[in-house]
Amino acid sequence: MKDTGAKNRTGDVSVGEHFDIEVPDTAHQISSDSWFQVAFVLTTGINNAYVLGYSGTVMVPLGWVGGVVGLVLATAISLYANALVAKLHEFGGKRHIRYRDLAGFIYGRKAYCLTWGLQYVNLFMINCGFIILAGSALKAVYVLFRDDHAMKLPHFIAIAGLFCAVFAIGVPHLSALGIWLVVSTIFSLIFIVVAVVLAVKDGVKTHSRDYEIQGSPLSKLFTITAAAANLIFVFNTGMLPEIQATVRQPVVKNMMKALYFQFTIGVLPMLAVTFIGYWAYGSSTSTYLLNSVTGPLWVKALANISAFLQSVICLHIFASPTYEYMDTKFGVTGSTLALKNLTFRIMARGGYLAVSTLLSALLPFLGDFMSFTGAVSMIPLTFILANHMYYKAKDNKLNPMQKLWHWVNVVFFSLMSVAAAIAAVRLISVDSKNFHVFADL
């Protein structure tokens, strides 16, 4: 274990305008990765199997103008917000390797606990989403070759959860992903290229498409609001300090390189499949693009299997803060293959993923709940907290216009958070009437 630069401290002792709270060292490896590896972690977080849904969940509700402008603006705004957090990583002369550590140092223990809770609920829901996504990809392969419906979505979700658990037990921490990031990139390219090629083929054959935004004025209002919130989820992880903790010194400079890579080269595959999918199928685009495309069965099967396997790897990224907490809490250090450590990972990570899998199978329309938790956690963490932390940390160095700019961001994204939460509650209300537990969607 390497020194985190944040030694154990006790109490809520005010240091100037900042707070020293008890922050444990980490049992995981930090300060070991190149900026390029971190860039691949971030890019994997963007180009996961969720990209197969953006044509339907972002472009269909927003249309060409709203979707294109929204994605471009979301790219720029997300880069800006992430850069604010990245620049605070060594604020106060110490490294803040967890989001809650940074919030606690700036605001105190209450903010430390609140940030911790919001982040972990958000990451838990994202992980459930990956399990559902992986299960759906497996089911898509199944129905390509069989139509007996003997196996339902909950069965495939259970299989996906098992694969995720095996992978989690075998890969001890975020830095250990290593070659798996290359494998993940290959899987991403497979399902993205297949989706793009088959969508282009279908689009060329189709002479007329409907790009009108469907629904009544009221339903349009809610779907547009939800889609606007989805723009934020497309580019952000909600765990930037934890990812930045793995990068070598100089941490801010290297993290900025990784962010520039993510928001330039890294976003291109996602934008390509999103725009081409919508161009090909218009307002009839499925929320899982591989369900819309037509082509050879083996090609579609390959794409779905790639989406399944990439989801397993990607889940590990978003689950790593939880794994880090458990390993640090119980002092799991030393050899990955030591019987004690292996047993602990089987029990702790296996238990965590068992609960996640059960909830995913129980409520396969969990995406509605993800929209709600994202509204009350992802938006505050990524935009509201980022702007206010930077404002508070750099207060003496900001001119009045810069201070006003940060407050405008805080107010705007607070309103967006409330609006997105209301839209998500409505969606939950509607879908809870249409679906049942352990539904075969």
UniProtKB/TrEMBL annotation:
Boundaries of every Amino acid transporter transmembrane domain copy: 33-425
One Pfam entry name: Aa_trans
Top-level lineage group: Eukaryota
Keyword Transmembrane listed: yes
Record-level GO BP terms: amino acid transport
Segments crossing the lipid bilayer: 62-81, 124-145, 152-171, 177-200, 258-281, 301-321, 342-363, 369-386, 407-428
Assigned GO CC terms: membrane
Keywords of this entry: Amino-acid transport, Membrane, Transmembrane, Transmembrane helix, Transport
Compartments, as annotated in UniProt: Membrane
InterPro entries: AA_transpt_TM
PANTHER family in alphabetical order: OS05G0424000 PROTEIN-RELATED
Protein name in UniProt: Amino acid transporter transmembrane domain-containing protein
Source organism of the structure: Brassica carinata (Ethiopian mustard)
